[in-house]
Amino acid sequence: MATATATATPYRFFTLQVTRTRRLSPSLLRVTFAGPDLRAFASDGLDQSLSLFLPRPGQSEPVLPMEFGEGWRQTWLDVPEDVRAVMRSYTLRALRQDRHGVTTEIDIDFVLHGTEAGAEAGPEAGATPAGPASRWAAAAGAGDRVVLLGPSVADNGAIRFRPPADADLVVIWADETALPAASAILETLPAGTRARVWLEVPHAGDRTAEPVTAADADITWLVRDEGAPTAVEAIRAARLPEAQAPYAWIAGESGCVKELRRHLVREREIDRGRVTFVGYWRRGLSEEQLRAQAA
Question: Does 147 share its domain with 25?
């Protein structure tokens, strides 16, 4: 694997190592990464999107032709599928900096699926089987190597949460894949901000501590194995606070995201330009299949 070199500004490759892992809940695992390359990493956090490259089983590091600069993607695709690094999209959960403002560590939260979620989670009808990222995270240990494609400029186009200055209500829905981003968003909302929030998780044990926020936030947990209503049902039945300029951020399974956006725009009559919607995954399709469809 070549030494990391910059891609198109403001994004570049970062060669990182695992420093520690922490199980947050039956379905969530936090992995902390560090490495000298992080000196160039910069992000305002929130829902910062990242591309993570993982080694295949039996490899000590991901196979990624970083020496080809902006042409890396096609060169990576030209590597045999059973050899080239596994690429998955994640959001940054947190970063830590030293007293000089230099990034020293970042956290990424992984959703564990199938047997990786463990017996404590209990059975779930239609549960998603463990994929390569879930299996990698479950077995990750200190020193394991990865490559990250991320920002070197704090304010960049891979941050989607951008409420207008006049927003007088923030509406949020996130499933477990978007929970790290939703938590980061809530942590940054200033005091006095009104927020109505729905957080959807598979199991009761995934209902972790309420995100810390200074906002006036009303948070509802939707736990699927407790028979919670669907996100659309829950939000449609809710009475939102009166607002002249609401803003919505909805992220998670793309089918649900589309339904919620339709509800907010057509039924709630929220200006479509004030609804940020991000499909992190699609039920029944792998990320490789999604990329093939997009191509």
Answer: yes
Evaluate whether 182 touches 201 at the Cβ level (below 8 Å): no
Same domain, 181 and 256: yes
First to last CA, the chain: 26
Residues in the chain with pLDDT < 70? 1-9, 68-69, 114-129, 209, 285-286, 288-295
User: Which tokens sit at 283?
Assistant: 């039920």
The reported pLDDT for the residue numbered 125 is: 44
**pTM listed for this prediction:** 0.89
Kindly provide the b/e burial profile for residues 17-27, where b requires at least 16 CB atoms within 10 angstroms of the residue's own CB: ebeebeebbbb
Domain around 209:
169-281
Distance CA 286, CA 146 (A): 20
Q: Which residues contact 57 (CB under 8 A, 6 or more apart)?
A: none
Number of structural domains in the chain = 2
Cis peptide before 80 (omega within 30 of 0): no
pLDDT at site 71: 81
pLDDT at res. 89: 95
Residue 1 in domain: no
Query: Which H, E and C letters describe 205-248, residue by residue?
Result: HHCCCCCCCCCEEEEEEEEHHHCCCCHHHHHHHCCCCCCCCEEE
Structural tokens at position 81: 């599928």
- Asked whether the beta carbons of 246 and 169 are under 8 A apart, the reply is yes
- pLDDT tens figures, 96-106: 999 999 999 99
Torsion of CA 279, 281, 285, 291, to 10 degrees: 70
